[in-house]
Every structure is written in C-alpha cells, then in structure tokens.
What does this fold into?
Amino acid sequence: MDAILSALGEEHAELDTLLQPLDDAGWSSPTRCDGWTVADVVLHLAQTDQLALASARGQFADGLAVLASGEEGAGNVDDGAAAMVERERGLPNAALYDRWRGGAAALRDTLAASDPHRRVDWVAGQLSVHTLVATRIAECWIHSGDVAEAVGVAQVPTDRLEHVARLAWRTLPYAFQRDDRELTGPVAFELCAPSGAAWHFVPRDEPLTTITGDGAELCLVAARRVAPAATSLRGTGPDVDAVLELVRTYA
It folds into this structure.
C-alpha cells in the first residue's frame, strides 16, 4: 500500500507544479476535454476526489447525492461528470486551486489510514481501497496530461504508470461487459515501462490474447487520449483488436 500511495502523492505533486504558476488566462485555456477549460478539469478532479473521500469513509451514496444534487441517476457516467462541472463552474481560480489541493491531501490521509483490502462503493460497483487508489492515480495522470497540453508543457511518462496499466488490464472484463461483449479467453499484457523495465501482467490461466508494446502508450489508449493505430502496440490472439478498442482506466 505504501508504494501505491506514494505514487498517488507524486501524481498530485506533478499536477500541483503545473497549476501553481498559472494566471487567469492559463486557468481559462481550453483542453482536449471537449468544452472544458483547465479550470473545468481541475474542478472535475476536485469533485471526484471528494467522491473518493466519501467512498473511503463509507459514505459514497451521501457524497454522490451532494455532488449530483438529485441527478445521480440521469445519463451515463460521462453525462453525470459533465453535469457536476456545469453546476459548479465559475469558482474563483484561487478558491478552486485550494479546494483541489486540500481535498487531495485529505484523500491521501484517509486512504493511508484505510485497510487496503476493505471493499468500498464506487461508480462502477464495489472495489478494494487499493484499487480505489489506482483509479485516482489514473484519473490524476490523465487530467494532468490534459492540463499540460493546454499550457504547453510536455508530460513526461514515469514508471508510476505501472499502476495505471495494471488497472487497465485487471478491468478488461468490466470494459467488455459495459459494451455487451465477451472476452474469448484470458489476456496478458507484456509491456515496456518508461524506464525500460518490463511489466508482465499475466493471468492464472494460459492467455489466448497477448498485447505487447510501450506501457505509456497502452495507458494513453486506455485513457482515450491516443488511438491504438497511432501506437506501437501489437498483439496475438483472437481479442487483440477488441482489447485495444475497449481497454479503459475509468468507469
């Protein structure tokens, strides 16, 4: 648990470094999230960190009701996130920055005091606290990339992405299920980390499909930020194309 919590703290610190020097024009910069500015992206992170904090405290339903204001049953997850941002859009940038920063710190403290194996509620159903941390790493990294691109800063991949790639691999059954499709059989990921290390995500049973290539590219594909065809990712087996189409890091 210490390693994954450290990774979350480092992701928060990286985003903090991007946000600290921004003036009002920087906060208003459009991002690759359609219709969202940097401020909107940070508001979304503050809201979902708040929801994760409620989840870790066993208060997910109450936390969702507060943020969604009675619309938590309307539309899909993306629609709900957009509605929450729309509802609170326009906060002063300094207040928004403080809200995100304070909420991220409170979330790290609460997660550090939690049993990593305890099951908690989340958007797509129940998961362990350990997996909840992985989802927060993934979301912070994805949106840090959105902010970085908007303000003209290159996001340098790190081996912290191992947590993101593992999450993408472990949630493949969910990714297929939400698209009403089924895996033919077990899937393995054999990836190269930014440092050059090897990441092996291998199922218990013999894999029928194996995805190989750059680990950071796999994470970008799972984040819906890069198309599979624009990467070095390749594979063997019956589900290669479907895996690269459906793999994801979020609900």
Notes: The chain has two domains: 2-150, 161-246. Residues 2-150 form a domain with the Four Helix Bundle (Hemerythrin (Met), subunit A) fold (CATH 1.20.120.450).
